[in-house]
Design goal:
alpha/beta, Dihydrofolate Reductase, subunit A, 4 helices, single chain, eight-stranded mixed beta sheet, binds NADP nicotinamide-adenine-dinucleotide phosphate
Length: 161
């Protein structure tokens, strides 16, 4: 099974603010949907809550918390990243969908990162972790803003040596 990280980041690697996504970029949501549909998506408890505690359709949601009493409907609840990875069955690509804490722990286990770079500065309080030189950019496609998507952005894929 391959482990992939998927994230959308603004300038200076900003991910979110006040446990919410900052921007609305339909093209990125569509990209996320196309990649993750039919797969397992692994997330931290805060990201689960930021998504309104709702499992996304046609995906298996796995939520990580240290709280043994935590309840979440429609997902597999686990207590470590390793437990999350062990819960993935019959899937050639499992996606780690955030947030910052979980990305940091998953980076050494992942073989691919799908990063949407939004070319705009936003105020935020959560940041995508720095990553090392072992990661190289395999694909980089630029898109200009349009009526629906208010910011220029790039869809990037990173792989590791
Ligand atoms: N732009 C993007 O692509 C994107 C994607 C995802 C999220 N986000 C943003 O990122 C922010 C949330 O990220 P975050 O870093 O604050 O939180 P997070 O990574 O989503 O969740 C952190 C929580 O995960 C649990 N956890 C972490 N490591 C664990 C471990 N080793 N074992 C067991 N449980 C563990 C803990 O839950 P308990 O406290 O319950 O124990 C911890 O509080 C939000 O603003 C969200 O909107 C952005």
């Amino acid at each position: 099974m391959n482990i992939s990280i998927i994230a959308a980041i603004g300038e200076k690697n900003v991910l979110g603010k006040d446990n919410k996504m900052i921007w609305h970029l339909p093209a990125d949501l569509q990209h996320f949907k196309e990649l993750t549909t039919g797969h397992h998506i692994i997330m931290g408890r805060k990201t689960w809550e930021s998504m309104g505690k709702k499992a996304l359709p046609n995906r298996v949601s796995i939520v990580i918390t240290r709280d043994k009493n935590y309840k979440a409907e429609g997902c597999i609840l686990v207590h470590s990243l390793d437990e999350a990875l062990a819960a993935v069955k019959n899937d050639e690509e499992a996606f780690v969908i955030g947030g910052a804490e979980i990305y940091k722990q998953a980076m050494s286990k992942a073989s691919k990162m799908y990063i949407t770079r939004i070319h705009q500065s936003f105020e935020g309080d959560t940041f995508f972790p720095e990553f090392g030189k072992e990661w190289f950019e395999a694909i980089y496609n630029d898109f200009e803003k349009d009526e629906k998507n208010k910011y220029d952005f790039s869809l990037c894929e990173y792989e590791r040596d």
